[in-house]
Amino acid sequence: MDFSGRVGGGRRGGGSGGHRNVDEFGRERRDRPHQRKPYDRPARGGHRGGHGGRGGAHAGMGPVGPIDEAQEIESRLSSLIVKVGDKNTPTLQNNLEALSVVLEKDCVKHELTVMRTFRQCVLELPWKVTVYSTLAGLLNAKNSETGEKVVALMHAVLRGSLAKGDWGSVKVLMRFFALLVSTNSIAASTLIGMLDTFLAPLAGGSAKVSASNNCYVFIVLSTLLWAGRSLKEHAPAELEQRLELAAKYVQAQAEINQGNTLSTVFHDTPPKGSNTLVHLLDVVRAVAGNDWKVDAIYAPFELFASEFAQAKQHELPALELPTELAATAFYTPSEFLQLVPSPSDQAVRKYVLQDFIADTLTQLEGNRKDCGKCLMQIHNLCNEDVCSVMTAVQHPEDVDPESTLVFEYMMAEVLFSFLLQLPEGLYREMYYTSLAIELRKAEPVILANVFETMVESIVARVQFIDVECLNRLSNWLAVYISNFGFQWDWTKWESAASEPVDSPKHRFVQETLLKLIRLSYLDRVRAMLPDSYSALIPAKAPAHNFKFTVQAMDERTREVSVAVGRCLKSKGTVEQALAILQEHYSKWADIDDDRRQSLAREMLVEHVLLLGSKTFSHMLNAIEKFMPALQKFGDSPEAKLQIAQVTEDFWLGNPQFFAITIDKLINYRVIDPATVIAMLFDDGHVGSWSKFQYWEILHNTVKKVNMRVVQLQGRLEAAVTAANAMADDDTPTEIQPAESVEHVEATLAQMVQEQRDVVVSTARHFARLLSSGSGASGELDRAWLHGRFKEFLRTYRIQVVENASTLESSVFTAEASGDVRQAFEDVRKLSAA
Predict the structure, then answer these.
(1) What range defines the domain where residue 517 resides?
(2) Distance (Å, rounded) from C-alpha 499 to C-alpha 690?
(3) What is the pTM assigned to this prediction?
(4) Biased composition, Gly residues: where in the chain (predicted)?
(5) Which of 538, 126, 141 is nearest to 308 (CA)?
(6) Do residue 758 and residue 655 come from a single domain?
(7) CB-side exposure of 55: number of CA atoms within 13 Å?
(8) pLDDT tens digits for range 344-373
(9) Is 309 part of a structural domain of the chain?
């Protein structure tokens, strides 16, 4: 059976509804009455977003066209399953009982719809896990065959998630099976066997700390949080043994990462390294000390104990861990940042609710709109007095975060925890920005205040935050503000203008304003700022800095510049431009050939950049047209470096164009990654390490190299497959593979070597500057450089570890400073863990 439907809306172009009315391109036809605006239409599932399909939780109106009786019943069943337990009401017990009766009756005819919807509800509405485990238990109590189908389906989904390395889904599903023990649908021994699958690598108690083992232990502890109460009743000895084994591993992991700050967001707290497991273990132990009671979310299965006592328990096949996934496929989510005060005696409740928020954010990652709607529903299933909800009270400003858990603040904390997660985020930064925008649209006043408070709490600790996290926050804030009329209370940050230019607060505010200028224009940004901000924004709009102005040239230079300019403006050819340069500079007898070539190179690059300075498209066309001449002039590393430096000088007042132009020059092989690295780490940039633009270019360059390696690996696999297919075909043919294996292998080897050179060269430049007294202009400048160094090691830790022996022998030697060598050791530990 196909259980491919999704609750939250389907990926664009990925729907597969059997009765959809579609055009020749597979798109659903839209019923648009006269004068209906394209954006003024009823919501339909399956048009936008990453998850869902027909009958989903937020699909709105159904498919266009007549709906027969069977479809109507299926739609009703899906809706009943999705909506049950939306709120903790006195009628929930009766609703579950009634729904179990309906499903038992209709499951015979509509098994596919019931099972598909049930599966997606468990995965995509994770905070209702107690509701759906209860519903599964009731189905099993009424009809063991139906119960067995549900349990078998979810077990198959779990096996599939394991095979794909979908650890977010594995965690959610294991929580579901933990609660199935409470409904007597599976035995405690069955769940213990499932946990033992994850604990198998830890057998003997001396397991090596690794990313995979971190992930397995995280899933086990997350499951024990919900299974502890039933396991204590039915298998207390086994529960203690598994908890002790997991705790022993967590202790070993914490000791290895002690003092490692590479995964620490704020450095004003005692460094624990990657302390997620430590935090979770503390929560589990706190729950164990309270007789394993988890009271944050309503647990309706406790009301059906008598029905469950007579139910049949089902056996399940053994689970198997994946064996071929790379270490990067494993993850342990970062600890939730505590950005606002909260009662210490409610730590467990806060963790549980934030865990549900995090799971919802993860499971609905492909659909920010449905994710936003679901996040605002989680508190509806909370037990009484667990948390305060500002959107549900008459005077939200009276809610005190220091005396109660506030749901909106917890939700925002999780969002920022994901945004600032180290060593790397799970998803692209824009997801968290777009999700925050959707949430604020839903509650414009309250969530606007919440997000502003959260940003303020981070900026208040800005001198302690990791450099990369500060960069992410700046990106987030600029896009967020730009979506709401550029409104922000800038008076709170006026002091930033008077701080040193490379202080964290000054740089954060300035870089955010520069991004806002990119997203709008200078006069718009200037108009919304107090006069005290004048030192934080450019005096004039971003523009080019053309060197060969009339006033800045001597007579013979003017002749060359005018001739080249006329040639390019009149759409002259590459050959004509080169001929003009040759004709004029050959007359300069007072300089040698190298100097003559250097001047010609500079003249051509300046005029090509000027020709393309109007728009991005103009720039692309100009570089593409004169690519042969630029490549000819870039015939050595020194020549390439000059081209890059001329480009930087030309776009000195426009960092965005600078980054884009450098990217295009790399694409057209005018310069190479080694050129960019040499340019960025030039001694002329000392004192400017706090500027974000250089590191944006560095990351774009390294990622481009890594992407090319991945692409070539894919091409090699395709070439090998094609070659093998032809070798197995006995039919004589003269058709050759699109690419020979040998050619792709040679290209890949060359690119892998370039990847190694990029990593080693960048690390060498960092070490040289940080280990030299002249590598920074002061302590603040050096702190920025060291922060970016840690960011580089952390981001490209796979390549760093692959080249560890080379780096250790040639870069991180005794001549390197102590903090440089320590950062290298920390990244090796981080990669091992």
Answers:
(1) 505-538
(2) 14
(3) 0.88
(4) 1-18, 52-63
(5) 141
(6) no
(7) 31
(8) 889 999 999 999 999 999 999 989 999 999
(9) no
